[in-house]
Amino acid sequence: MKPIKIGIAGTGVVASGVVNILKRNADEITRRAGRDIEVIVVSSRTRAKAEALVGNDVQIVNDIMEVARHPDVDIVVETMGGYEPAKSFVLEAIAHGKHVVTANKALLAEHGNEIFKAAQDKGVTVAFEAAVAGGIPVIKALREGLSANRIEWIAGIINGTTNFILTQMREKGWTFADALKVAQELGYAEADPTFDVEGVDAAHKITLMSALAFGVPIDFKAASIEGISKLAAADIAYAEKFGYRIKLLGITKRVSNGTTDGIELRVHPTLIPESRLIANVNGVMNAVLVKGDAVGATLYYGAGAGSEPTGSSVIADLIDVTRTITADPEHRVPHLAFQPDSLASIPMLPLSAVKTRYYLRLTAQDRTGVLADITRILANHDISVDAMLQTEVDDATKEAHIVIMTHVSQESNVDTAVSEIKALASITGGVVKLRVEELG
Ligand SMILES: NC(=O)C1=CN([C@@H]2O[C@H](COP(=O)(O)OP(=O)(O)OC[C@H]3O[C@@H](n4cnc5c(N)ncnc54)[C@H](OP(=O)(O)O)[C@@H]3O)[C@@H](O)[C@H]2O)C=CC1
Ligand SMILES: N[C@@H](CCO)C(=O)O
């Protein structure tokens, strides 16, 4: 059979992984795909960079649209990142009847509904395994392996950069800034690393997984997002005293009971019992826990970023698309796991509706009655205390830290209680509030 012809936009970290693996594992890939997969054109604004990657036998163009419109290309690979020109490039390629493989979660979280609709209308596929959790085939698991299940929840460490930073800070005492710099040097971070550290990248990924899990349209605006930039080393240490590790988690949950029906979609630093496997996922590694009603909890683990791990996912998509390229579009796996005319309209729940356990850290003056005031306020808002610790009073400031672990409480009640606690004269600093997930 004649080779499948590929055009790649971008010559960066991910594109390099794709090109290098395609060269190194050409035989294995052909045996799996049933035909050769051949890169025939790449775009680059720096010709020398592209030549160093693909040599002289591959066409190199300056204008990405030449890749999108190339008459011989069957599948385009979008590895530029960002919203534009990536969106125009992908839509142009679809309009020209090309299948698309992309690693761009930002693009799909913001514009995926429009892009998948355009692809469906044109009868082409947009594949995006590399967009979520780097080298871990979790999109495949959600779309295919778990398709018998009602998915109950997903919780994942889905940003390699922040997990790398948290690990280096905890294990090696690195500063946040140093750890981020190394993550950038290793090619893990986004072009704008605030997407990583402020939780936006994880929110893009959990938004895509939420749509796949629950059969709803992609709704990035519904995500509540909190990153790790304000996380204090003191809270990492106190959490450990209670037997917990702090990880940046993306969480999506279907809540369906007598009083609430909807989907939670959130990213925030989270306390996880240190006995859980996922609490021990370190460095750039990612892990995604998926709870299905039939299968129970399943865990997917692997490198969440980096050139070849991400290239591995891109090529898996290339092979998948190659295998189905001649299939009737109706018989391909739907983009969002559910048939496009079967997407449901389920409300997205606000953060105030979340019910979980909470970690609170207060800085208080050493005054009689302060603990009584705090516990009275918590009790008034239906929040019961599971455990508490108080540090020794600092001689200089006459302040101590009070750390409280609550039982399951409602976020809106906790927020009201926190405002009242902050207003107490004896509370001198802010109140740190972190969520706890048992993930049992
Ligand atoms: N790095 C990683 O570990 C992972 C990255 N991803 C995603 O993969 C995508 C690419 O990431 P990565 O490879 O790290 O990014 P890089 O910055 O390393 O590479 C991006 C490439 O895209 C090209 N490019 C960027 N902007 C433009 C533009 N305006 N016009 C034309 N070409 C452009 C550049 O090519 P040139 O300079 O040659 O023109 C550059 O080589 C992103 O969506 C990212 O989120 C997903 C999973 C993991
Ligand atoms: N910046 C992302 C790349 C992989 O999506 C991360 O660190 O996880």
From TrEMBL:
UniProt protein name: Homoserine dehydrogenase
Entry annotation: catalytic residues: 205 (proton donor)
PANTHER family xref list: HOMOSERINE DEHYDROGENASE (PTHR43331:SF1)
SUPFAM superfamilies per UniProt: ACT-like (SSF55021), Glyceraldehyde-3-phosphate dehydrogenase-like, C-terminal domain (SSF55347), NAD(P)-binding Rossmann-fold domains (SSF51735)
GO process terms (BP): methionine biosynthetic process; threonine biosynthetic process
Keyword Amino-acid biosynthesis: yes
Coiled coil: none
List of residues binding NADPH: 105
UniProt-listed NCBIfam families: PRK06349.1 (NF004976)
Source organism phylogeny: Bacteria, Pseudomonadati, Pseudomonadota, Betaproteobacteria, Burkholderiales
Domain of life: Bacteria
Pathways involved: Amino-acid biosynthesis; L-methionine biosynthesis via de novo pathway; L-homoserine from L-aspartate: step 3/3; Amino-acid biosynthesis; L-threonine biosynthesis; L-threonine from L-aspartate: step 3/5
Binding site for L-homoserine: 190
